[in-house]
Amino acid sequence: MSTLHGGPDALGVPRWDFSINANACGPAPAAWRAVQAADATRYPDPGYRALRDALAALHGVEAHRIVLAGSASEFIVRLSVAIAHQAPGAAVHGPRPGYGDYAAAARAAGLVSAASPCQAVLIWHTQPGSPEGRSSPLPEGTPGALRVVDCAYAPLRLHGEAPPLPADAWTLWSPNKALGLTGVRGAYAVAPAAGLHDHALHRRLEALAPSWVLGAHAVAMLDAWAHRETQQWVRDSLATLRHWKAAQLAGCDALGWACEPSDTPFFVAHWPDAAPPPAQLLPRLRERGLKLRDAASLGRPGAVRVSVQPPAAQQALAVLWRELVPQAPAVEGRR
């Protein structure tokens, strides 16, 4: 798949990276220590029994309901293939705008896009969503449709409450964003309780997984994620992110940007009409070490998705913007 993503690119690691939604307070210390101490000289337990038990305890479920994945994207692909085996050519519905891998995985598996959740066999939903960082109820769909809630940003919710989830929905967790460790790939899904999901599909998902779907570093990260110390660090980081977000929104307003409300440490922004469009200006910013995410690939052409970053990065954004867009408005006290 050729889906676009934020983060490092052919120019290397951006000095100031507003293009990815990782927790800017990270890395989480306990998780980072665990990853650094991981024994990469040996295979993990191929059954991942201890890890399944730890994740099951975190969510208060039985261990057999934990489906491990190489990453959230790997699970999206694997589930799409499993659905295609069960119902060739079935329809899939995903959030619009939203993460491009849902649609890309469906196309690769020979599935088709549904115009409405009521036409879909598989329904993807992100809670909170991206790029907007807002929440909405899980679509109903038709009886028997498989519904999966991607909870990638749920631990980073800064405001509001998540809508309740129905008991028959799957949840998908990729904690590397909340931990500030996006370079470590590892995720898991939680299946519904017995009697509320397709056991044949569950077995097919496990059968489609490659041997050792998680390496030693992913095991270490996910195990640390399940520990109380790490969960507390993530919760504590939210206060800092709220403070940084308030300052960043004020700074963007001073530049003349229009920022949409969000519940997360990222948001969608629109530049003043006098500024060059993202397709022209983003490469120039990138050459100077700053990266923003063009929201066009997420279904919002003409806008950018901006992650919350520390004060030094915010200052760099303001300086570079005024260099490249000299007609940007100046606000007293924010020059």
What's a quick, concise take on this entry?
Strand 9 and strand 10 (266-270) form a beta hairpin.
Explained architecture:
The chain has 335 residues and is α/β, with parallel strands linked by helices. Helices cover 35% and strands 13% of the residues. It has ten helices and 13 strands. Strands 2-8-7-6-5-3-4 form a seven-stranded mixed β-sheet, with helices on both faces. Helix 4 links the parallel strand 3 and strand 4. Helix 1 packs antiparallel against helix 7 and helix 3 packs across helix 6. The C terminus is likely disordered.
Q: Approximately what portion of the residues adopt beta-strand conformation?
A: 5-15%
Secondary-structure element series: EHHEHEHEEEEHEHHHEEHEEEH
**Approximately how much helix is present in the residues?**
25-40%
Q: Give the overall form.
A: globular
The number of E-state strands comes to: 13
Main-sheet strand order equals 2-8-7-6-5-3-4
Largest sheet geometry: 7 strands, mixed
Structural class: alpha/beta
Q: Output the number of helix runs.
A: 10
User: What integer is the average pLDDT?
Assistant: 93
User: What's the N-to-C terminus distance?
Assistant: 43 Å
Q: Kindly provide the radius of gyration, computed on alpha-carbon positions and rounded to a whole number of angstroms.
A: 20 Å
- Spans of at least 5 consecutive residues with low confidence: 331-335
